[in-house]
Design a protein that fits this description.
GO terms for molecular function: oxidoreductase activity. Its EC number is 1.1.1.-. Keywords: Oxidoreductase. It is a single chain. By secondary structure, the protein is α/β, with parallel strands linked by helices. It has one domain: TIM Barrel. It contains twelve helices and ten strands. An eight-stranded parallel barrel has the order 3-4-5-6-7-8-9-10, surrounded by five helices. The longest helix has 18 residues. The protein is globular. The N and C termini lie far apart (about 40 Å).
Length: about 325
C-alpha cells in the first residue's frame, strides 16, 4: 500500500482509505461481524486511514471502528465528521452558523465523537457540510481551533457541500482548514479547476470521496438496476438516472479496452487510479463493507499508474449533470 502525506502538518496515510459509511448503515442490511472482518482485513493490507462520521448510523460506524482499533497495535488515522444541528442539508444561504454550528453544540458533539471512538484526541474533525454564507464570519472553525488548542482535535477540515464545492477555496487560502474532503471522480471533475491547485498552493490535504460514484463506476450495475429502499442509492439513482449513468460507464469501459488495460484493470481500478493521478490528492476513500470489497479496493494501490495520455483522454467523461441529491 502506497502512502501520501495528509497536508503539510499531517502524517503519511494510505492512498486508499477505508470509507466507513456502509458499516454504520444506510446502504442496506449490514452485519457488525462482517464490518469488523472488513476493517481488520483492510488494516492487514496496509490501510491506515479510515473515514467515518456522526451521521453514519448515528455514530454506529464510529463505535465499530473504536471497537476494532482497541485490539490493533497499528497506528491508524481516523477522520470523522460533525453534522450541523437540524436544518436544511446543505445549509441554505439564510442559515445562521449560530443555529447550525454553535460553540456549545460543537463542543458537545466533539465529546460524543471522542466517546464513540474511545480516544482522547480526534485525528481529524471535519464539519460535514458548509455554506459560503459563513465564509466571512467562519466562527464554527474558530471553535474547532480552540478545541485544538485544548488538545481535543489534531487536524481540522471541511467536507464540501455538493452544490458548491468551491466554497472551501476561501477557507484554504485563509489558513482555516488543514484538510478538505471533496467529490472528484470520472464524472465530476470540477475540483481540478481550482480546489486541487489551491490545495497545492496552501499545503491543504485533500480527501477524495465518491470516487466510484456511489458504486456506479465499478461497472457492475445494469440500466434497469433498482436498489432496495433502505439503501440511500434508491433515491440517488431514481428515475432514469441509472440508465443514463450506465450508458456513460460503458463509454469508459470502451476507453479502457482501447488502451489495452482491460485484462489488468477493473473499472473500479481505473476510477480510483484516475483520482490518484492528481498529486494534490492525499487519499481516495473507497467504501468497504465486506472482505471482497477490501480485496478489490486495496489491490488498486499495487497496480501501475494509468498512462498520462489515458488520464488526459478520460477527461472527456466530465459530466455536467447537476446535483442529484436535491432531486431530479
Amino acid at each position: 500500500m502506497h502512502t501520501r502525506q495528509l497536508s503539510t502538518a499531517g502524517p503519511q496515510i494510505s492512498e486508499i482509505g477505508f470509507g466507513a459509511w456502509a458499516i454504520g448503515g444506510g446502504w442496506g442490511k449490514q452485519e457488525d461481524a462482517e464490518s469488523m472482518r472488513a476493517l481488520n482485513m483492510a488494516i492487514d493490507r496496509g490501510v491506515n486511514f479510515i473515514d467515518t462520521a456522526q451521521g453514519y448510523g448515528d455514530g454506529h460506524s464510529e463505535q465499530i471502528i473504536g471497537e476494532v482499533l482497541k485490539n490493533r497495535s497499528e497506528s491508524i488515522f481516523v477522520a470523522t465528521k460533525t453534522a450541523p444541528a437540524e436544518g436544511p442539508w446543505p445549509p441554505s444561504p439564510y442559515c445562521r452558523w449560530q443555529d447550525r454550528y454553535s460553540a456549545a453544540y460543537l463542543r458537545a458533539n466533539v465529546n460524543e465523537r471522542l466517546n464513540n471512538l474511545g480516544v482522547d484526541r480526534l485525528d481529524l474533525l471535519q464539519l460535514h457540510t458548509w455554506t459560503r454564507a459563513w465564509n466571512d464570519d467562519p466562527q464554527p472553525l474558530m471553535v474547532l481551533h480552540r478545541l485544538r488548542d485544548e488538545g481535543k482535535i489534531n487536524l481540522i477540515g471541511v467536507s464540501t457541500p455538493e452544490q458548491d464545492q468551491d466554497c472551501v477555496i476561501q477557507l484554504m487560502r485563509n489558513g482555516l482548514v488543514d484538510v478538505v474532503q471533496v467529490i472528484f471522480n470520472l464524472f465530476n471533475q470540477e475540483a481540478a479547476a481550482q480546489i486541487l491547485p489551491v490545495a497545492a498552493e496552501t499545503g491543504t490535504g485533500v480527501i477524495v470521496r465518491v470516487s466510484l460514484d456511489e458504486g456506479a463506476l465499478t461497472g457492475k450495475y445494469t440500466a434497469d438496476h433498482v436498489f432496495p429502499e433502505d439503501d440511500f442509492r434508491h433515491r440517488y439513482f431514481e428515475g432514469d438516472r441509472m440508465r443514463r449513468t450506465t450508458e456513460r460507464v460503458e463509454a469508459i469501459r470502451q476507453d479502457i479496452e482501447s488502451f489495452g488495460l482491460s485484462e489488468d484493470y477493473t473499472m473500479a481500478d481505473v476510477a480510483l487510479k484516475f483520482a490518484l493521478a492528481r498529486p494534490e490528492v492525499s487519499t481516495v476513500i473507497a467504501g468497504m463493507r465486506n472482505v471482497k470489497q477490501v480485496e478489490q479496493n486495496t489491490r488498486t494501490s499495487q497496480l501501475r499508474d494509468l498512462p498520462s495520455e489515458m488520464v488526459t483522454h478520460l477527461h472527456r467523461h466530465n459530466w455536467q449533470r447537476g446535483v442529484w441529491y436535491s432531486g431530479k
